[in-house]
Amino acid sequence: MLKRLSVNEILNAARGSRKLPVILVWCLLLVFALSLAACGDKTATKDFDAADQDNTAQDAKIKKNVKPEPDAEAAVIETDYGKIVLELYPNLAPNMVARFKQLIKEGFYNGTTFHRIDPGLGIIQGGDPLSKDANPDNDGQGSSSNPNVAAEFSDVPYERGTVGAARAASVDSANCQFYITLKRQPAFDKRYTVFGRVIDNQSLNNADIIMGAPTAAGTERPADKIVIKSITLQPRANFGASNAAH
Question: Which residues are paired to 196 by β-bridges?
């Protein structure tokens, strides 16, 4: 391993050698600065609105003009604020829907929370296993033990009630966290995987109540935990036609 020199060591070396070219000194300083930047990098979180990578490559993969077709099973989220019923779209995002259903069957989401609420953006976000513990500072950083799910972007817009896959900076870093948009968000279109939608107006109203809950000062974290008591899969036919407001 190469020894990392300090700035002073580099400058002293320059002063002590008349043969050391000035340009070499600047090159060494540049390497030093870049090494500091690398060491200061932090682990990316799964907050859904992280910066994008590889946008150009993803543009060619966007599914276009595909009408969402509901899965035979709906996901029912039970909270202290009532239930939120979601229909799922495997024809848009087969891998993310498969992951979501797998984790539901395993009971993975039971006891997690909606750890992020943002009325400005109009979103509620949950599904992080780290939200089960007593440390709120790590909420939003967790994943399941399964590999990440690659992007499955489409041109289905983020409207009121749309369900999206949360991810970090890499477009292929979706895993277990999800969010619901409660107002139109064109900035999210074609940038995050759409894999479902809230079915009915009562579910939307319950999600609105969650989004309006008090937050800890200076954060998007609910002041009191908003626990997802369970998510279960139930026949989509039990819930009739979608009448959720757009």
Answer: 88, 163
Identify the weakest region by mean pLDDT among 175-184, 212-221, 234-243: 234-243
Residues 146 and 93 reside in one and the same domain: yes
The per-residue pLDDT of the chain, averaged, comes to 83
Is the pLDDT reported for residue 15 higher than 90?
no
Report pLDDT for 136.
92
Task: Give residue 28's domain range.
Answer: 7-39
- Say if CB 180 and CB 207 are below 8 A apart: yes
Question: Same domain for 89 and 18?
Answer: no
Task: For 145-178, give the DSSP string.
Answer: SSPPBPP--BS----TTEEEE---SSTT-B-S-E
Total count of residues recorded for the chain? 246
The strand pairing partners of 198, in sequence order, are: 86
**243 three-state secondary structure:** coil
Q: How many domains does the chain have?
A: 2
Strand order in the sheet with 178-181: 114-118, 123-126, 178-181, 162-165, 194-198, 82-88, 73-79, 228-235
